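Can't attach files on this board, so I'm pasting raw text. These are the components:
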Amino acid sequence: MATPNRSRRGRRPGTSDTREAIAEAARRCFAELGYDRASIRVVAEQAGVDPALVMHFFGSKQKLFVSVMSLPFEPEDVLPALVAGRSSEAGLRLARFIVGVLEQPQPRMVITGMVRAAAAEPEVADLVRDAVSSRMVGAIATGLAVADAPLRASLVGSQIIGVVMARYVIRVEPLASLAPDALVEALTPNLQRYLTGPLPLVPGGERARGAGAR
Amino acid sequence: MATPNRSRRGRRPGTSDTREAIAEAARRCFAELGYDRASIRVVAEQAGVDPALVMHFFGSKQKLFVSVMSLPFEPEDVLPALVAGRSSEAGLRLARFIVGVLEQPQPRMVITGMVRAAAAEPEVADLVRDAVSSRMVGAIATGLAVADAPLRASLVGSQIIGVVMARYVIRVEPLASLAPDALVEALTPNLQRYLTGPLPLVPGGERARGAGAR
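---
Top answer:
C-alpha coordinates for the assembled complex are below.
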Protein backbone atom coordinates (compact mmCIF):
# COMPACT_ATOMS: atom_id res chain seq x y z
CA MET A 1 0.00 0.00 0.00
CA ALA A 2 1.15 3.55 -0.69
CA THR A 3 2.58 5.73 2.04
CA PRO A 4 -0.16 6.72 4.45
CA ASN A 5 -0.92 10.39 4.82
CA ARG A 6 0.83 10.78 8.13
CA SER A 7 0.63 14.56 8.01
CA ARG A 8 -2.98 14.25 9.16
CA ARG A 9 -2.04 12.42 12.32
CA GLY A 10 -2.34 14.41 15.51
CA ARG A 11 -4.31 17.21 13.86
CA ARG A 12 -7.60 18.30 15.37
CA PRO A 13 -9.40 19.35 12.21
CA GLY A 14 -13.02 20.54 11.89
CA THR A 15 -15.86 18.12 11.26
CA SER A 16 -16.00 18.41 7.48
CA ASP A 17 -12.21 18.17 7.23
CA THR A 18 -12.28 15.04 9.35
CA ARG A 19 -15.10 13.49 7.35
CA GLU A 20 -13.27 14.19 4.10
CA ALA A 21 -10.00 12.84 5.52
CA ILE A 22 -11.80 9.61 6.42
CA ALA A 23 -13.46 9.46 2.99
CA GLU A 24 -10.12 9.97 1.26
CA ALA A 25 -8.42 7.31 3.39
CA ALA A 26 -11.32 4.92 2.74
CA ARG A 27 -11.13 5.38 -1.04
CA ARG A 28 -7.40 4.68 -0.94
CA CYS A 29 -7.86 1.60 1.26
CA PHE A 30 -10.70 0.15 -0.85
CA ALA A 31 -8.63 0.65 -4.02
CA GLU A 32 -5.31 -0.58 -2.68
CA LEU A 33 -6.30 -3.25 -0.16
CA GLY A 34 -9.62 -4.44 -1.58
CA TYR A 35 -12.94 -4.44 0.26
CA ASP A 36 -12.34 -7.18 2.82
CA ARG A 37 -8.97 -5.88 4.01
CA ALA A 38 -10.07 -2.26 4.15
CA SER A 39 -11.33 -2.60 7.72
CA ILE A 40 -12.76 0.30 9.73
CA ARG A 41 -9.63 0.03 11.91
CA VAL A 42 -7.25 0.36 8.94
CA VAL A 43 -9.24 3.24 7.42
CA ALA A 44 -9.22 5.05 10.79
CA GLU A 45 -5.49 4.50 11.16
CA GLN A 46 -4.85 5.89 7.66
CA ALA A 47 -7.02 8.93 8.42
CA GLY A 48 -5.38 9.43 11.80
CA VAL A 49 -8.66 9.18 13.72
CA ASP A 50 -10.32 6.81 16.17
CA PRO A 51 -12.30 3.91 14.61
CA ALA A 52 -15.34 5.07 16.62
CA LEU A 53 -15.29 8.33 14.69
CA VAL A 54 -15.45 6.44 11.37
CA MET A 55 -18.51 4.58 12.69
CA HIS A 56 -19.98 7.86 13.96
CA PHE A 57 -19.73 9.48 10.53
CA PHE A 58 -20.60 6.51 8.31
CA GLY A 59 -22.40 3.86 10.41
CA SER A 60 -20.94 0.69 8.87
CA LYS A 61 -18.28 -0.42 6.41
CA GLN A 62 -20.83 -1.01 3.70
CA LYS A 63 -22.34 2.46 4.22
CA LEU A 64 -18.82 3.92 4.20
CA PHE A 65 -18.18 2.20 0.87
CA VAL A 66 -21.43 3.48 -0.64
CA SER A 67 -20.77 7.04 0.60
CA VAL A 68 -17.22 7.44 -0.60
CA MET A 69 -17.13 5.31 -3.75
CA SER A 70 -19.50 7.31 -5.93
CA LEU A 71 -18.71 7.33 -9.64
CA PRO A 72 -16.45 10.25 -10.62
CA PHE A 73 -18.93 11.32 -13.31
CA GLU A 74 -22.69 11.15 -13.89
CA PRO A 75 -23.15 8.38 -16.48
CA GLU A 76 -26.51 9.76 -17.63
CA ASP A 77 -24.99 13.18 -18.31
CA VAL A 78 -21.89 12.01 -20.12
CA LEU A 79 -22.29 8.64 -21.83
CA PRO A 80 -25.35 9.02 -24.11
CA ALA A 81 -23.75 11.95 -25.93
CA LEU A 82 -20.44 10.10 -26.26
CA VAL A 83 -21.90 7.13 -28.09
CA ALA A 84 -24.58 8.98 -30.08
CA GLY A 85 -23.91 11.46 -32.87
CA ARG A 86 -21.38 10.50 -35.54
CA SER A 87 -21.42 6.84 -34.77
CA SER A 88 -18.18 6.02 -36.58
CA GLU A 89 -16.34 8.00 -33.88
CA ALA A 90 -18.28 6.65 -30.92
CA GLY A 91 -15.60 4.08 -30.09
CA LEU A 92 -12.86 6.70 -30.14
CA ARG A 93 -14.84 9.14 -27.99
CA LEU A 94 -15.70 6.44 -25.47
CA ALA A 95 -12.13 5.08 -25.35
CA ARG A 96 -10.74 8.61 -24.81
CA PHE A 97 -13.24 9.31 -22.07
CA ILE A 98 -12.73 6.04 -20.19
CA VAL A 99 -8.92 6.11 -20.42
CA GLY A 100 -9.00 9.80 -19.43
CA VAL A 101 -11.00 8.95 -16.32
CA LEU A 102 -8.85 5.94 -15.41
CA GLU A 103 -5.61 7.88 -15.79
CA GLN A 104 -6.63 10.39 -13.10
CA PRO A 105 -5.59 9.10 -9.67
CA GLN A 106 -8.80 9.84 -7.75
CA PRO A 107 -11.32 8.44 -10.29
CA ARG A 108 -9.05 5.45 -10.91
CA MET A 109 -9.04 4.76 -7.17
CA VAL A 110 -12.84 4.80 -7.04
CA ILE A 111 -13.32 2.62 -10.11
CA THR A 112 -10.56 0.16 -9.18
CA GLY A 113 -12.02 -0.04 -5.66
CA MET A 114 -15.49 -0.75 -7.02
CA VAL A 115 -14.27 -3.51 -9.35
CA ARG A 116 -12.16 -5.07 -6.58
CA ALA A 117 -15.05 -4.90 -4.13
CA ALA A 118 -17.37 -6.53 -6.65
CA ALA A 119 -15.01 -9.51 -6.62
CA ALA A 120 -15.03 -9.75 -2.82
CA GLU A 121 -18.41 -9.03 -1.29
CA PRO A 122 -21.77 -10.24 -2.65
CA GLU A 123 -23.74 -7.22 -1.38
CA VAL A 124 -21.16 -4.87 -2.80
CA ALA A 125 -21.22 -6.83 -6.07
CA ASP A 126 -24.96 -6.06 -6.15
CA LEU A 127 -24.18 -2.39 -5.62
CA VAL A 128 -21.52 -2.39 -8.34
CA ARG A 129 -23.82 -4.31 -10.66
CA ASP A 130 -26.41 -1.60 -10.15
CA ALA A 131 -23.82 1.13 -10.78
CA VAL A 132 -22.44 -0.65 -13.83
CA SER A 133 -25.60 -2.15 -15.22
CA SER A 134 -28.41 0.26 -14.43
CA ARG A 135 -26.31 3.39 -14.76
CA MET A 136 -23.32 2.98 -17.08
CA VAL A 137 -24.72 0.25 -19.29
CA GLY A 138 -28.12 1.97 -19.22
CA ALA A 139 -26.64 5.33 -20.18
CA ILE A 140 -24.66 3.80 -23.07
CA ALA A 141 -27.78 1.91 -24.22
CA THR A 142 -29.80 5.16 -24.10
CA GLY A 143 -27.25 6.85 -26.33
CA LEU A 144 -27.23 3.97 -28.80
CA ALA A 145 -31.02 3.78 -29.05
CA VAL A 146 -31.10 0.46 -30.94
CA ALA A 147 -32.88 -2.81 -30.12
CA ASP A 148 -29.81 -4.70 -28.96
CA ALA A 149 -28.27 -1.70 -27.15
CA PRO A 150 -28.26 -3.40 -23.70
CA LEU A 151 -26.16 -6.29 -25.04
CA ARG A 152 -23.80 -3.88 -26.81
CA ALA A 153 -23.46 -1.80 -23.66
CA SER A 154 -22.77 -4.85 -21.47
CA LEU A 155 -20.07 -6.04 -23.92
CA VAL A 156 -18.49 -2.57 -23.70
CA GLY A 157 -18.71 -2.95 -19.93
CA SER A 158 -16.88 -6.30 -20.06
CA GLN A 159 -13.98 -4.73 -21.97
CA ILE A 160 -13.74 -1.76 -19.60
CA ILE A 161 -13.88 -3.97 -16.48
CA GLY A 162 -11.24 -6.19 -18.10
CA VAL A 163 -8.91 -3.24 -18.66
CA VAL A 164 -9.38 -2.11 -15.05
CA MET A 165 -8.52 -5.62 -13.79
CA ALA A 166 -5.69 -6.43 -16.23
CA ARG A 167 -4.00 -3.00 -16.25
CA TYR A 168 -4.51 -1.68 -12.72
CA VAL A 169 -5.25 -4.67 -10.45
CA ILE A 170 -3.46 -7.76 -11.85
CA ARG A 171 -1.02 -5.57 -13.85
CA VAL A 172 -0.56 -7.83 -16.86
CA GLU A 173 2.35 -6.56 -18.98
CA PRO A 174 2.77 -4.92 -21.42
CA LEU A 175 -0.80 -3.65 -21.02
CA ALA A 176 -0.07 -2.37 -17.51
CA SER A 177 2.58 0.07 -18.69
CA LEU A 178 1.12 0.97 -22.07
CA ALA A 179 1.02 4.73 -22.69
CA PRO A 180 -2.53 6.13 -22.32
CA ASP A 181 -2.75 7.29 -25.95
CA ALA A 182 -1.66 3.85 -27.16
CA LEU A 183 -4.30 2.29 -24.92
CA VAL A 184 -6.96 4.53 -26.48
CA GLU A 185 -5.95 3.39 -29.95
CA ALA A 186 -5.76 -0.24 -28.87
CA LEU A 187 -9.31 -0.11 -27.48
CA THR A 188 -11.04 2.13 -30.03
CA PRO A 189 -11.90 -0.36 -32.83
CA ASN A 190 -13.02 -2.98 -30.31
CA LEU A 191 -15.33 -0.58 -28.48
CA GLN A 192 -16.54 0.69 -31.86
CA ARG A 193 -17.47 -2.82 -32.95
CA TYR A 194 -19.42 -3.48 -29.75
CA LEU A 195 -21.21 -0.14 -30.14
CA THR A 196 -22.06 -0.16 -33.85
CA GLY A 197 -20.67 -3.25 -35.58
CA PRO A 198 -22.68 -6.28 -36.60
CA LEU A 199 -23.72 -8.64 -33.82
CA PRO A 200 -25.56 -10.93 -36.25
CA LEU A 201 -26.75 -13.49 -33.74
CA VAL A 202 -28.89 -11.27 -31.57
CA PRO A 203 -30.72 -8.87 -33.94
CA GLY A 204 -33.79 -8.65 -31.75
CA GLY A 205 -32.41 -10.49 -28.76
CA GLU A 206 -34.03 -13.84 -29.62
CA ARG A 207 -30.90 -15.92 -29.10
CA ALA A 208 -29.76 -13.85 -26.13
CA ARG A 209 -31.71 -15.53 -23.36
CA GLY A 210 -31.67 -12.54 -21.02
CA ALA A 211 -31.54 -9.77 -23.60
CA GLY A 212 -35.03 -8.48 -22.90
CA ALA A 213 -34.68 -8.71 -19.13
CA ARG A 214 -34.17 -5.01 -18.51
CA MET B 1 -23.33 -19.91 -1.79
CA ALA B 2 -24.53 -23.15 -3.41
CA THR B 3 -25.72 -26.07 -1.32
CA PRO B 4 -22.76 -27.65 0.44
CA ASN B 5 -22.00 -31.25 -0.31
CA ARG B 6 -23.50 -32.59 2.90
CA SER B 7 -23.25 -36.19 1.77
CA ARG B 8 -19.56 -36.08 2.66
CA ARG B 9 -20.25 -35.18 6.30
CA GLY B 10 -19.69 -37.94 8.79
CA ARG B 11 -17.91 -40.21 6.32
CA ARG B 12 -14.54 -41.65 7.20
CA PRO B 13 -13.01 -41.74 3.74
CA GLY B 14 -9.45 -42.73 2.81
CA THR B 15 -6.64 -40.20 2.63
CA SER B 16 -6.83 -39.44 -1.09
CA ASP B 17 -10.64 -39.19 -0.94
CA THR B 18 -10.35 -36.76 1.95
CA ARG B 19 -7.70 -34.68 0.23
CA GLU B 20 -9.81 -34.50 -2.92
CA ALA B 21 -12.94 -33.63 -0.90
CA ILE B 22 -11.03 -30.73 0.69
CA ALA B 23 -9.69 -29.62 -2.70
CA GLU B 24 -13.17 -29.72 -4.20
CA ALA B 25 -14.64 -27.74 -1.28
CA ALA B 26 -11.79 -25.23 -1.49
CA ARG B 27 -12.30 -24.64 -5.22
CA ARG B 28 -16.00 -24.04 -4.62
CA CYS B 29 -15.32 -21.68 -1.70
CA PHE B 30 -12.67 -19.66 -3.56
CA ALA B 31 -15.01 -19.31 -6.57
CA GLU B 32 -18.19 -18.53 -4.66
CA LEU B 33 -16.95 -16.65 -1.59
CA GLY B 34 -13.76 -15.07 -2.93
CA TYR B 35 -10.29 -15.53 -1.44
CA ASP B 36 -10.64 -13.60 1.82
CA ARG B 37 -13.91 -15.24 2.90
CA ALA B 38 -12.84 -18.74 1.93
CA SER B 39 -11.27 -19.39 5.33
CA ILE B 40 -9.71 -22.69 6.33
CA ARG B 41 -12.61 -23.07 8.76
CA VAL B 42 -15.26 -22.62 6.05
CA VAL B 43 -13.44 -24.95 3.63
CA ALA B 44 -13.18 -27.60 6.36
CA GLU B 45 -16.87 -27.24 7.18
CA GLN B 46 -17.81 -27.60 3.51
CA ALA B 47 -15.63 -30.70 3.19
CA GLY B 48 -16.98 -32.15 6.46
CA VAL B 49 -13.53 -32.41 8.07
CA ASP B 50 -11.64 -30.78 10.93
CA PRO B 51 -9.76 -27.53 10.06
CA ALA B 52 -6.58 -29.15 11.41
CA LEU B 53 -6.83 -31.74 8.65
CA VAL B 54 -6.93 -29.02 5.98
CA MET B 55 -3.76 -27.55 7.49
CA HIS B 56 -2.22 -31.03 7.68
CA PHE B 57 -2.77 -31.65 3.96
CA PHE B 58 -2.08 -28.16 2.59
CA GLY B 59 -0.08 -26.17 5.17
CA SER B 60 -1.64 -22.72 4.70
CA LYS B 61 -4.49 -21.01 2.88
CA GLN B 62 -2.16 -19.67 0.23
CA LYS B 63 -0.67 -23.12 -0.36
CA LEU B 64 -4.17 -24.57 -0.48
CA PHE B 65 -5.08 -22.01 -3.14
CA VAL B 66 -2.00 -22.78 -5.21
CA SER B 67 -2.58 -26.55 -4.95
CA VAL B 68 -6.22 -26.65 -5.91
CA MET B 69 -6.58 -23.75 -8.35
CA SER B 70 -4.45 -25.03 -11.19
CA LEU B 71 -5.53 -24.03 -14.69
CA PRO B 72 -7.91 -26.57 -16.22
CA PHE B 73 -5.68 -26.82 -19.31
CA GLU B 74 -2.00 -26.44 -20.16
CA PRO B 75 -1.72 -23.06 -21.91
CA GLU B 76 1.50 -24.02 -23.68
CA ASP B 77 -0.10 -27.15 -25.15
CA VAL B 78 -3.34 -25.55 -26.29
CA LEU B 79 -3.05 -21.85 -27.03
CA PRO B 80 -0.21 -21.53 -29.58
CA ALA B 81 -2.00 -23.88 -32.00
CA LEU B 82 -5.30 -22.04 -31.51
CA VAL B 83 -3.97 -18.65 -32.57
CA ALA B 84 -1.50 -19.84 -35.22
CA GLY B 85 -2.46 -21.44 -38.52
CA ARG B 86 -5.17 -19.80 -40.60
CA SER B 87 -5.02 -16.50 -38.84
CA SER B 88 -8.42 -15.27 -40.05
CA GLU B 89 -10.04 -17.94 -37.86
CA ALA B 90 -7.82 -17.44 -34.81
CA GLY B 91 -10.39 -15.24 -33.06
CA LEU B 92 -13.16 -17.80 -33.60
CA ARG B 93 -11.02 -20.71 -32.40
CA LEU B 94 -9.90 -18.80 -29.31
CA ALA B 95 -13.45 -17.57 -28.49
CA ARG B 96 -14.83 -21.13 -28.84
CA PHE B 97 -12.10 -22.55 -26.66
CA ILE B 98 -12.41 -19.94 -23.89
CA VAL B 99 -16.22 -19.98 -23.80
CA GLY B 100 -16.10 -23.80 -23.89
CA VAL B 101 -13.81 -23.83 -20.85
CA LEU B 102 -15.84 -21.22 -18.96
CA GLU B 103 -19.12 -23.02 -19.57
CA GLN B 104 -17.92 -26.17 -17.78
CA PRO B 105 -18.64 -25.88 -14.04
CA GLN B 106 -15.29 -27.10 -12.71
CA PRO B 107 -12.97 -25.03 -14.96
CA ARG B 108 -15.25 -22.01 -14.53
CA MET B 109 -14.93 -22.38 -10.75
CA VAL B 110 -11.14 -22.41 -10.96
CA ILE B 111 -10.89 -19.46 -13.35
CA THR B 112 -13.52 -17.38 -11.53
CA GLY B 113 -11.78 -18.15 -8.24
CA MET B 114 -8.41 -17.04 -9.65
CA VAL B 115 -9.79 -13.76 -10.99
CA ARG B 116 -11.66 -13.05 -7.73
CA ALA B 117 -8.56 -13.86 -5.69
CA ALA B 118 -6.45 -11.56 -7.85
CA ALA B 119 -8.75 -8.74 -6.80
CA ALA B 120 -8.41 -9.55 -3.10
CA GLU B 121 -4.92 -10.61 -2.12
CA PRO B 122 -1.66 -9.04 -3.37
CA GLU B 123 0.37 -12.26 -3.17
CA VAL B 124 -2.35 -14.17 -4.96
CA ALA B 125 -2.56 -11.40 -7.55
CA ASP B 126 1.15 -12.07 -8.17
CA LEU B 127 0.38 -15.74 -8.62
CA VAL B 128 -2.51 -15.04 -10.98
CA ARG B 129 -0.40 -12.52 -12.88
CA ASP B 130 2.20 -15.23 -13.37
CA ALA B 131 -0.47 -17.70 -14.50
CA VAL B 132 -2.09 -15.16 -16.81
CA SER B 133 0.96 -13.30 -17.99
CA SER B 134 3.80 -15.80 -18.18
CA ARG B 135 1.64 -18.72 -19.17
CA MET B 136 -1.55 -17.71 -21.00
CA VAL B 137 -0.31 -14.46 -22.48
CA GLY B 138 3.06 -16.08 -23.18
CA ALA B 139 1.45 -19.06 -24.92
CA ILE B 140 -0.74 -16.81 -27.08
CA ALA B 141 2.28 -14.66 -27.92
CA THR B 142 4.26 -17.78 -28.89
CA GLY B 143 1.51 -18.82 -31.28
CA LEU B 144 1.30 -15.36 -32.83
CA ALA B 145 5.06 -15.06 -33.35
CA VAL B 146 5.02 -11.33 -34.25
CA ALA B 147 6.89 -8.39 -32.72
CA ASP B 148 3.95 -6.95 -30.80
CA ALA B 149 2.55 -10.35 -29.77
CA PRO B 150 2.86 -9.69 -26.01
CA LEU B 151 0.70 -6.56 -26.30
CA ARG B 152 -1.85 -8.41 -28.44
CA ALA B 153 -1.93 -11.29 -25.99
CA SER B 154 -2.39 -8.99 -22.98
CA LEU B 155 -5.26 -7.20 -24.75
CA VAL B 156 -6.86 -10.60 -25.36
CA GLY B 157 -6.31 -11.29 -21.67
CA SER B 158 -8.10 -8.07 -20.70
CA GLN B 159 -11.19 -9.07 -22.71
CA ILE B 160 -11.24 -12.58 -21.24
CA ILE B 161 -10.81 -11.33 -17.67
CA GLY B 162 -13.55 -8.78 -18.36
CA VAL B 163 -15.96 -11.50 -19.51
CA VAL B 164 -15.19 -13.57 -16.41
CA MET B 165 -15.87 -10.56 -14.16
CA ALA B 166 -18.90 -9.14 -16.02
CA ARG B 167 -20.63 -12.46 -16.84
CA TYR B 168 -19.83 -14.70 -13.88
CA VAL B 169 -18.86 -12.44 -10.95
CA ILE B 170 -20.73 -9.11 -11.27
CA ARG B 171 -23.37 -10.69 -13.57
CA VAL B 172 -24.05 -7.69 -15.79
CA GLU B 173 -27.14 -8.35 -17.92
CA PRO B 174 -27.82 -9.25 -20.66
CA LEU B 175 -24.24 -10.53 -20.96
CA ALA B 176 -24.67 -12.75 -17.88
CA SER B 177 -27.45 -14.80 -19.46
CA LEU B 178 -26.29 -14.70 -23.07
CA ALA B 179 -26.30 -18.15 -24.70
CA PRO B 180 -22.74 -19.56 -25.06
CA ASP B 181 -22.85 -19.65 -28.87
CA ALA B 182 -24.01 -16.02 -28.99
CA LEU B 183 -21.16 -15.12 -26.64
CA VAL B 184 -18.68 -16.80 -28.99
CA GLU B 185 -19.98 -14.75 -31.90
CA ALA B 186 -20.02 -11.56 -29.84
CA LEU B 187 -16.37 -12.04 -28.85
CA THR B 188 -14.90 -13.45 -32.07
CA PRO B 189 -14.26 -10.27 -34.13
CA ASN B 190 -12.90 -8.45 -31.09
CA LEU B 191 -10.45 -11.22 -30.21
CA GLN B 192 -9.57 -11.50 -33.90
CA ARG B 193 -8.71 -7.81 -34.06
CA TYR B 194 -6.47 -8.03 -30.98
CA LEU B 195 -4.75 -11.11 -32.45
CA THR B 196 -4.23 -10.06 -36.06
CA GLY B 197 -5.74 -6.62 -36.75
CA PRO B 198 -3.79 -3.40 -37.06
CA LEU B 199 -2.47 -1.90 -33.83
CA PRO B 200 -0.81 0.99 -35.68
CA LEU B 201 0.59 2.77 -32.65
CA VAL B 202 2.89 0.08 -31.40
CA PRO B 203 4.45 -1.55 -34.50
CA GLY B 204 7.71 -2.38 -32.76
CA GLY B 205 6.67 -1.45 -29.24
CA GLU B 206 8.25 2.02 -29.30
CA ARG B 207 5.22 3.82 -27.93
CA ALA B 208 4.33 0.98 -25.58
CA ARG B 209 6.56 1.84 -22.65
CA GLY B 210 6.65 -1.65 -21.20
CA ALA B 211 6.24 -3.63 -24.40
CA GLY B 212 9.74 -5.09 -24.37
CA ALA B 213 9.72 -5.83 -20.66
CA ARG B 214 9.15 -9.56 -20.94
